Every structure is written in C-alpha cells, then in structure tokens.
Amino acid sequence: MTAKINRRAWLKSSLLAAGGIGLAPSLVSASTTRISSHVSPFNPQSLLWEHDPMYKEKAPALKARLLANENPYGPSKKVISTISDAVSLGNRYAHGDAATLIDMIAEKEGVTKDHIMLGPGSTDLLEKTAIVRFLEGGNIVSADPSYMSLINTSRRIGATWKPVPLTQDFSHDLDGMAKSVDDETKLVYVCNPNNPTGSVTDPAKLKSFCKKVSAKTPIFVDEAYLEFMDKPEENTMVGLVAEGHDVIVARTFSKIHGMAGLRIGYIVALPERIESITDMVRSTMGLSVTSLKGAIVSMNEEKFIAECRSMNKECRDYVYSELTGMGYDVIPSSTSFMIFPIAMEGDKFLKSMFAEGVGVRAYEFLDKPWCRVSMGTMPEMEIFLEAFKKVTV
Prior knowledge:
By secondary structure, the chain is an alpha/beta fold. Helices cover 39% and strands 15% of the residues. The protein contains 13 helices and twelve strands. The strands form three sheets. Strands 2-8-7-6-5-3-4 form a seven-stranded mixed β-sheet, with helices on both faces. Helix 2 runs antiparallel to helix 10 and helix 4 packs parallel to helix 5 (149-156). The longest helix has 24 residues, at 302-325. The protein is globular and about 55 Å long.
C-alpha cells in the first residue's frame, strides 16, 4: 500500500509541475456546396504514418482521407474567422475565454459550471480520468470492441480490463457489464454511439443501467458522436449528472464541429468527481486562446451543425446502400463512419486502398477483418467505392 501511495504522490506532483498531461478535395458535388467551398486542402503526403508505420517511408497521395472520422466541412466560416482574429492574442493566457465556454456548456447541459471540465479533446479527458482512477490498481469494465484510449491508459498504469462482448445487434451487453462489476471495479466505460461499430445502445436501457451501476462505481459515457444522431437530446446521458448520479459524460468539438485539429472537448460530471480529477491534473491551462474562441463561436453554429449532420447522413445512406447492394453486411451506423467485414487480410487491404489514394482503417474482431470508412464529401465517397470495387474484385 505504501508503494502505491508514494507512486500516486510522485505522479501527482509531476503532472502538476508539467501543467497536466498534456480534406477536402477541390471537387464539390451539388449536395455539398452549401458549406464546403471554403475548406482548405490538406497536405496529402504527410499524414498516413500517424495511422500505420508501414506508410511512413513513402506515403501515396490521398484522394480521399477517410481514416480518422474527421468532419470534411469544418470548422465553420465564422469559427475560421474568429480563430484568425484571435492569433494576435496568442501572447495572453485564455482563462477568461475558458470561463466563458464553461458557462455556455453548463447552460446547454442544464448543470452548474462546477460540473464542467475542459480539455484538449475528449480523448485527453478520458486518459486523465484513467490516470486518476487507476493509480492504485483495480479493473475497468467496457464493451469489446470499443474505443480503446481510456482502456489502454488504464492498463498501462496497472488496471485490469474486463471486456464484455457486444450483443448480436452490436449494442452494449448491459446485463453482462453489470455482472462484471465487482469490488475492484474503479470505472465502467460506455461509448455510445460506439466506435468502431457505429452502433447505438437503447437510451432507456442505458439510463437504467447507469442509475443502478453508478451507485457502485462511476460510469464514463463517451458521447463523441452523439450529435450525428437525428435526436441527440433523446440519447444523451447528461441528464443523469443533473440528477446526482455518478456519471461522467464526454463530448468533443472534434467531430460534428469540425475542429479535430484544434483540440477541445469537455466532460460533465458531479462537482466532486471533477474535483478529484483537477486535484491531480490541470484543465484549462492546456487550451489555446484560438481553440477556445473558436469553440465559443461554434457553440452557436446551429445551422452549420445541422448541415453537417444532413450531409453526413446523405453520404452514409448512399455508401450503406451501395455496399449492401454488393452483398456486404454493414453494421447500421448513427455516426460519421461505418464498418463492415471484408474477405481480405487487413494489411493487404489497406495497402491496396492506399495505393488507390484512399485512406481507411482496418480492424480485426470476431475472427475476421473489417473495414471502417469515415464519411467524407460525396465525391470522396464515390472515390472510395470505385477504389473498393477495384481492390476487392
């Protein structure tokens, strides 16, 4: 026990001292001209190594970057203008802007500001939560497959992972997860909609699960893709926090807001849970004035967000129809990506797709390889399908 306490004290002091842990193509179809014409092109030669080292030496030019669940239409024009103007303030700390954004989020989510913690993207907040919860061991319960950032961080610092397979319809096995919770469980992680499957767990059943299980251990609900759903307000678990349940809800500006490279997100949790994290790691100190001012503006970009949701769904429905028409068993998605099993080894498939200038992801679960493709613009999805047909014939 003494060794664990000393380790916690050492890491706490180290983190505080360090300030915490710290495409679009030019072609645009008629369906995407509403907001995509301002998007600047990315450097297609410099990005693939982020996702797979086999492409580090000689990356082919990408025609369609569909591997990171990025919003191809954002940030909005107003956000871009605001960020540009804010660069001149880069010599000043942005504590005031952080306070403004926290107030806006608190009002939106129906809680007080002491229920909110900001971070450079929601992944940062997942990992900070893992560090705080698992410094002294314990286990984490989650679905399998799911988003692994929180789980991997927990395991690296000594936690045990208790994976619970998804059900046949790829929703969370809530009964199985509840049964997996024991006296050593320090956190339950739920990604809803789930990544990488894109599937959704019934909100009524999930709320019942959270109310019951959060009395034993905190529940972390990752809602990074919530706003791509038709009725996100009916699927969020944030109301449970206002009711006093020990639930942590994560959101991000990386997805539907189109701000992935600007790194900003937040969690909503009980004040004492927020304090348990900020007592160990810092929050707003890791945020830039440009990102904060951009997020403040983006909070009110309702038309832009609605258009992104609509165009994402248009592309998703189109690709789903094409792939199922080709005989592929695509998991119905409520997100900005979809996944389906392929009859081709993952590395070979990726290399072949990248050779065609299309970036996607490959996964291995249920004893078979899968392709996960992010939704880009309609021209990108047409390029994807053309390349996919060529590669898999």
